[in-house]
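Hello forum,

I keep getting stuck at the same step: I have a sequence, I want structure tokens, and every attempt I make locally crashes halfway through. Rather than fight my setup again tonight, could one of you with a working pipeline run this one for me? It's a single chain of 247 residues.
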Amino acid sequence: MKAMIFAAGLGTRLRPLTNDRPKALVEVAGKPMLEHVIVKLINAGIDDITINIHHFGQKIIDFINSKNNFGININISDERDMLLDTGGGILKARNFLDGDEPILVHNADILTNVDLTAMLQNHQETGAIATILVKSRETQRYFLFDERYKLHGWINKKTGETIPASLINPTEFRPLAFGGVHILSPAIFDYLEQYAKEERVFSITPFYINQCESCLIHGFEQKTPYDWYDIGKPETLAIAEKNLKLQ
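Reply #2:
Ran it on my machine without issues. Output:
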């Protein structure tokens, strides 16, 4: 299985830490968040990783080189000319990711010990074009799933907005928060190409919502406890730092 790590973000929530470095190189428990994710993926058996870059992109290249590519194959998808968002970023990296195997996509600012092997098995069993890590937690925006974890839409609990607007009764679905980790089937690229219609910059979230009635977008909710931190925020970064030092 190949993997892609989103490391191109501007890291505005972490300023001033990101005034002189990319968000992915901000340290937590003595190591850059990017290193934590790379090591996790290697431990899951992945030896081919693509990393997208934008903000202070050369510093990520230099870091990877200093680590001798962590002993695996690491590709750089260069977005320094234009930040392409998540959907556009995946599509730009297609040449590195194409093949017959599923692709794991992981945000650099998500630190988690979720069971990736179980998530992959779930993805393969359902035959979904995308399986997204979800969890019941407090946030404003949720994906909406039925009892079989099939995606049906999206809701902003603060504003009441639902997508698609045709959702008559969103309360019949279970709201679950996205965890920044997905597994994609190779077939997704053709759907992405059709959806993008020559647009370079687009998010994967509206793509999932737009496609969920025509093809299977599946949620994976791990039933056993696991750690999950969005370390792209100062307060959560501090919590992760503290907890990791206790381990």
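DSSP finds eight helices and 14 strands in the chain. If your local run keeps crashing, start a new thread with the error log.
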